[in-house]
Amino acid sequence: MEQTKFLKYLALPVLILLLFVQSCQPDKEPIEDENVAMELFDVSYGDHPRHKMDIFLPANRTRENTRLLIWIHGGAWVDGDKGEFVDFKPWFEEVQDDYAYISLNYRLFDVASGANKFPSQEEDIKMALDYIKQKLPEWKVSDQVILSGGSAGGHLALLHSYKNNSDGLVKVVAAVFPPTELFTLGNGNPLITFLLQTLVGNPETNSDMYINSSPINFIDSQSVPTTFYHGDADEVVPIDQSYLLEEKLRENNVPLYFEYYPGQGHGFTDQTYQNMIRKIEEFINLHL
């Protein structure tokens, strides 16, 4: 009876000790076995809830040969999610071998409260790329990085590649119906004009912000090879935005490839997207 009573009193502190020791154990990271394909969802690259990325690592990847394509989602900087890449991923995989993929979230501008005004989104892409660069050896992925995105994501991809790519991590940039010059983006569209004035500020009093947030202002002869795609019936981001990009790239002799799709708006048909992705891969292979 006394022995049972003793064991009863002994069990509680032992249990507490075990729980304490277990709670002090660091969370184990998933083992990045390069021979096994892995999908890592909602990986944090910062402290904000929107600082998340999805990572798709192929089997048998190597530091020498496995390219990395990073996708930045669209949504007018106020909406959207990294999950949009799921629709494009099978089409990329059809034409690409030995690629890893990352799809990024970033802070969204809150029109109602005014939170996360620009350049919050630009800063998040810089933070994400810094994190990715540090993780490439662990993931067994090369530094042959392609940055890409559509609409607002295309704008952020171009802006980072021309303005914030001092480490040379991004080797090629691909953009789909991207804003490139914010002063003229509204083009008489009152909704776009209102969004820009709340997101970036009044262009008359905040002209420096418009200049610093427009990708074409950072193009020079050393800019990365660029491929981009636009529909001539786009009523959200006028095709003139890509005409300006084309002109500036040509002036600086930057390698480029583009296609303008007749009758296509802000969003392409599946067939057009698939054609576009084949063209992107052909362009990448020319420059990597």
- Say what the CATH topology is: Rossmann fold
Report Rg: 23 Å
Number of domains: 1
Number of E strands? 8
- What does the largest sheet look like? 8 strands, mixed
Calculate the mean pLDDT score and round it: 91
Annotation field: number of helices: 9
Give the low-pLDDT segments.
1-28
SS content category: alpha/beta
Detailed description of the structure:
The chain has 288 residues and is an alpha/beta fold. The chain has a single domain, classed as Alpha/Beta hydrolase fold, catalytic domain (Rossmann fold, 3-Layer(aba) Sandwich), CATH 3.40.50. 40% of the residues lie in helices and 17% in strands. An eight-stranded mixed beta sheet has the order 1-2-4-3-5-6-7-8, with helices on both faces. Strand 3, helix 2 and strand 4 form a beta-alpha-beta unit. The radius of gyration is 23 Å and the shape is globular. The termini are far apart. It comes from Shivajiella indica. This is Prolyl oligopeptidase family serine peptidase. Keywords: Hydrolase.
Quick tags:
9 helices, 40% helix, disordered N terminus, Prolyl oligopeptidase family serine peptidase, eight-stranded mixed beta sheet, 288 residues, Rossmann fold, alpha/beta
